Amino acid sequence: MAAQQSQVPTDLLDTDSAGFASLDLNARLLRAIAKLGFNHPTLVQSSAIPLALQGKDILARARTGSGKTGAYCMPVVQKILLAKEAGRSAPAVRALILVPTKELAEQVLKHVKDLTLYAKEVVAINLGSSDQSTANQRAILAEKPDIIIATPSKILAQLEAGNVVLKESLESLVIDEADLILSYGYDEDVRKVLSHLPKIYQSSLMSATMSDDVDALKQLVLRNPAILKLSEAPA
Ligand code: ADP
Ligand code: MG
């Protein structure tokens, strides 16, 4: 019997593939994925992960519930784990995941924690967590977590206050639910956040829909991306 019932519709699972084991992920990450009860990658995962691991920028459109969180979190975690295993372990913020709401930030943090169950040296924080005072946030940022998950406005406030610097260390940027980020009016904040990032970093833009606005954002953050258009949102 499966350890956990998959919540993904079976038509979104890539059951033809040899499974996660064929994706060249770190053994500790694979253990955590197995522990989650994920037997097969979803289609967006099996197409995005190998490309992201090769260093490609990714633009993925896939409907809600298709496993986009794992598709971007797994390569981000893998990259940080490999850097740490190779001895590049000085504390530094290496990844920024932008999300439209603090609730989603909480869900993404949970997913990262599940994925790093056997790799506790990878530290992720949700900047928008409501139980954090400003002073507390400053203290947390001073410890330089590997991964910051935040809404554009939360990270921008901390960048502008000088409580976190991303210019030297950031290696990965993810914009999740890009369509919602834009429709919530975060456009200007995202542009300002980008001005605090290094010249070169790997980025992923995930969206359930593709609008002209998402296209404009794509021009700003992606370099020669792999474009993955999977299932549309059901009509
Ligand atoms: P999206 O961001 O595309 O809306 P999520 O990343 O939130 O989708 O994933 C939807 C659900 O599917 C979550 O409950 C997640 O834990 C589960 N899930 C993700 N990947 C897999 C997988 N490979 N196998 C089984 N379940 C998965
Ligand atoms: Mg999602």
The count of DSSP E runs of length 2 or more, i.e. the number of strands, is 7
Evaluate the radius of gyration.
17 Å
Helix content: 40-55%
Regions with pLDDT < 50 over 5+ consecutive residues? 1-5
Element string (H = helix, E = strand): HHEHEHEHEHEHHEHE
Number of H- or I-type helical stretches: 9
Assign an overall shape.
Answer: globular
Give your account of this protein's structure.
The chain is an alpha/beta fold. It contains 9 helices and 7 strands; from the N terminus they run ααβαβαβαβαβααβαβ. It has helices at 27-35, 43-53, 68-85, 102-115, 134-142, 152-160, 178-183, 187-194, 212-221; strands at residues 58-61, 95-98, 124-126, 147-150, 172-175, 202-207, 226-229. The chain has a 7-stranded parallel sheet, sandwiched between helices. Strand 3 (124-126), helix 5 (134-142) and strand 4 (147-150) form a beta-alpha-beta unit. Helix 2 (43-53) runs parallel beside helix 3, helix 3 packs across helix 4 and helix 6 (152-160) crosses helix 8 (187-194). The structure holds adenosine-5'-diphosphate and magnesium ion. Magnesium ion (MG) binds next to helix 3.
